[in-house]
Automatic annotation (TrEMBL):
SUPFAM superfamilies: N-terminal nucleophile aminohydrolases (Ntn hydrolases). This is Gamma-glutamyltransferase family protein. Transmembrane segments: none annotated. It comes from Scopulibacillus cellulosilyticus. PANTHER family: GAMMA-GLUTAMYLTRANSPEPTIDASE (AFU_ORTHOLOGUE AFUA_4G13580).
Length: 537
């Protein structure tokens, strides 16, 4: 089991880990965490709690996720880790040629073109049917209540709401953007911290999903409403795209890092980037966290892993190299040899042939869930279906329009997906779920949290509060204002282009729950960079 000093707090935050025994829910928004805990207290299990919190987050934190997004889950149940890929494919009517005829030389970020089939509602239904204990209509009730009755917007959410408001004012044409502004403003302005906001249409959509185990979103009047609006605005999503969609149960992938198995969802998710980097780093010994050498090697390893990830990750059946080859010990050794005392410009290798919300839940029976869902880039495409509260994702923007690329756009193909839940086990025993939301920061956050936990024995809250770095591109690395200045200077001397981040909250938002296998005691941490907390029982 993990060993840490619960009194050890080397950073400025004074927050301590939270302990519980009968259940725990860690999310980025207090109301969602309480909703999940309430479901546990009503007799639900960790899966029910995860679905309740996830649905609630679409209401109370719509800046980072929504009904029209994707979801992934790692579920420990019945002595086994199960993986669910709830990401959706491109519409069948889209193509590289169609985009180029519209004048695009790369995938646009906003509008109808990058919209892919949303997977989150189907993921909720699938998890509930296979592992849930309570009816979905009971599990979604807290979310329905907040959407119908309203809630006071939390501070970090309000800040990002305003950023998205300004972005869509600038980047979307008025006719297409109007439903977003009708839905997500209060008297024409983005809600401020503490201001009440409600979405009756969102409540009705959640109610339809709850009463049909998710079916209403994909088949029937609601599905027709979605597709009619998209077609009216010359988008590609059609009723058959929704009707044909089903989430996919997958085998999680892992690497062993210092005796612990670190688990991720396989591609099309980017979790193997974190695993490739950890595979490189386990060839070194790290005895001190606040060390120039530690940070330098971490940054170099993630650069090499991302160079491979951005070249090779796609939907698995379209990848030229297997996951096994990318995670092989021999390939990790090859990549490790490239790291020296100076910052490098990363390039992909040749393997041997072969905006988001994250939440974690645990119940008193030993079941645990690592769950993540997103609309991407905060509110996603900016396209909202009038009267429904459905903001549609823009995952398709990650496709390449180069037909030679593994991740090139094609009808019915799933794009490279940034959202990744994580899970930790040791010798076949579950330790618990962990995750960091935030686009391409996510594998970097996973790496930093795992090393903070395993190499440096930090408890969950300290592992989350530690100052973070984020590799951007080339030799550029952004750091938080709390990052040690003398180490930043030393990294710059090694050739890294070190930049202090001007925008707050760009380093991801994470949650952790660890379970003591001997006592069943749960220890949780929640991101101090956001509005969340750990609700424990």
């Amino acid at each position: 089991m993990l060993h840490f000093d619960p009194d050890y707090q080397p950073y400025t935050s004074k927050r301590m880990p939270v302990f519980g025994h009968k259940g725990m829910v860690a999310t980025s928004q207090t109301l969602a965490a309480q909703a999940g805990l309430g479901i546990l207290k009503k007799g639900g299990n960790a899966v029910d709690a995860a679905i309740a919190a996830a649905a609630c987050l679409t209401v109370v934190e719509p800046t980072f996720n929504g009904i029209g997004g994707d979801a992934f889950a790692l579920i420990w149940m019945d002595g086994k880790l199960h993986g669910l890929n709830g990401s959706g494919p491109a519409p069948q009517s889209i193509s590289i040629e169609a985009l180029k005829k519209r004048g695009f030389d790369k995938m646009p970020l906003f509008g109808v073109e990058p919209i892919t089939v949303p997977g989150a509602p189907a993921a909720w239904g699938e998890c509930s049917r296979r592992f849930g204990r309570l009816p979905l209509k009971d599990v979604l009730q807290p979310a329905i209540g907040y959407a119908e009755d309203g809630f006071p917007v939390s501070p970090v959410t309000a800040r990002f709401w305003k950023i998205s408001y300004d972005k869509f004012k600038k980047n979307l044409d008025h006719d297409l953007a109007k439903p977003w502004f009708d839905t997500f403003t209060v008297n024409g302005h983005p809600p401020e911290a503490g201001e009440m906001w409600s979405s009756p249409g969102h409540a009705e959509t959640l109610r339809a999903i709850a009463e049909t185990d998710g079916e209403a979103f994909y088949r029937g009047e609601l599905a027709k409403t979605i597709c009619d609006f998209i077609e009216k605005h010359h988008g590609f999503l059609r009723p058959e795209d929704l009707a044909d969609y089903h989430p996919e149960w997958v085998d999680p992938v892992s690497v062993n890092y210092r005796g612990y198995d670190v688990w991720e969802i396989p591609p099309n998710a980017q979790g193997i980037v974190a695993l490739m980097a950890l595979n490189i780093l386990k060839g070194y010994e790290f005895t001190e966290k606040e060390s120039i050498d530690t940070y330098h090697k971490q940054i170099e390893a993630i650069k090499l892993a991302f160079a491979d990830g951005k070249k090779y990750i796609a939907e698995q059946k379209h990848m030229k190299h297997t996951v096994q080859s990318l995670l092989s010990e021999s390939y990790a050794e090859e990549r490790r040899k490239l790291i020296n005392d100076k910052a490098l410009d990363p390039v992909h290798g040749q393997p041997p042939k072969g905006g988001t919300v994250y939440l974690a839940t645990a119940d008193g029976e030993g079941n645990m869930v690592s769950f993540i869902q997103s609309n991407y880039m905060r509110f996603g495409s900016g396209v909202v279906i009038p009267g429904t509260g459905i903001a549609l994702q823009n995952r398709g923007c990650n496709f390449s329009l180069d037909p030679r690329h593994d991740n090139c756009l094609a009808p019915g193909k799933k794009p490279y997906n940034t959202i990744i839940p994580g899970f930790l086990t040791k010798d076949g025993t579950p330790i618990g779920p962990f995750g960091v939301m935030g686009g391409f920061m996510q594998p970097q956050g996973h790496l930093q949290m795992i090393m903070n936990t395993i190499d440096f024995n930090l408890h969950p809250q300290a592992a989350l509060d530690a100052p973070r770095w984020q590799w951007m591109e080339g030799k550029t690395v952004k750091i938080e204002s709390t990052f040690p200045h003398h180490i930043a200077q030393a990294l710059a001397a090694k050739g890294h282009n070190i930049q202090y981040a001007l925008e707050p909250n760009t380093f991801g938002k994470g949650q952790i729950i660890w379970r003591n296998p001997e006592t069943g005691v749960l220890t949780g941490g929640s991101e101090s960079r956001t509005d969340g907390n750990v609700a424990a029982w």
